[in-house]
Input
Amino acid sequence: MAVIDLDALGLACPFPLIKAQKKMQELKVGDVLRVVTDCVSATENIPLWAKNVGYPCEIKKTGSGTWEITVTKTG
Output
């Protein structure tokens, strides 16, 4: 299992979601994508996308206006 960081700070939606989707295609089953973002919409859009494709997802507020979203690639 690898943890891959994706810096999406300063990007407005839909770009954090698009970058996360593209990066997930490169990962192996069991890998975790950790997205750091300051886009409020990404905290809704990325988890919704992850749920729709069956990937576990967690959101953690890491500061004033920043979040860490982790998505685990499953089978």
Q: What stands out?
A: The mean pLDDT is 97. The helical segments are 15-26, 42-53. Strands lie at 3-8, 32-37, 57-63, 66-72. The two ends are 13 Å apart (CA to CA).
